[in-house]
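Final report, closing paragraph on structural work. Over the funding period we assembled a curated collection of sequence-structure pairs, and we close with a single example.
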Amino acid sequence: MPRAEPTARSLLICVDERSPVVEVPNGDSVLFGWRGGEITVGTDQALTAGRIHAFGDYWLMSNCGAVGTYCVENLEGAGEYVKVRAGRVGVPIPFELSRVTLTVGAGGNSFTVYAPERRTTAGPGGAGIPLLDEESRYFQVLVCLCEPRLRDCGVAAVPTPAQVSARLSAADRPLGRSAVNYHIDYLATKLGIVAPRGMTRAWKRDTLVTLALKFDLVRPEHLGLIPGPVPA
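Its predicted structure, as stored:
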């Protein structure tokens, strides 16, 4: 998805390709609701579904409805979302690129919010020593395990060792299933994952993926480390 660039630290809201982009300067707010069966964003007091308030490098969302929960998804993450239940006011949303969905079902029930890029506090040398070696074979295995969820946050399945082996094996550098399992065990040890008694290897893979995505150890830009075509 192309990234819009907010100016003067403003918030941008895009309902669809036919509607003009709504700019919300820092400190201002807009309302949203339905008009003629379609979502509309603006200052019209007749829009009563909710309110969005631009606040620094994040934003606040209010659900003014009596029933129903709104869902704000992080389009740059790996499945993170915030639920804004009916009647909640001023819920902070930390995502820079979000999809706000107001109802379940097909049709025009969502819009996109572009927030200003966040400021960071890390100075020179502030990154520290990385936990994982991104040039290693074990990191390729971890990226491959995370790949389905990075490409589609709604995917629950984690690749099997056989699928990882097939994905990462090249003619000049094969990787067997036993080697994949070795790398998975090494990653689990390195990240402090201890499987409870009776847990399967599938549990270990699922836990690795959840942990890696939760703490941004694997991010979308790491997909370039995996060779070959994307699996269908």
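Residues 158 and 206 are 6 Å apart (CA to CA). The radius of gyration is 21 Å. We thank the funder for supporting this effort.
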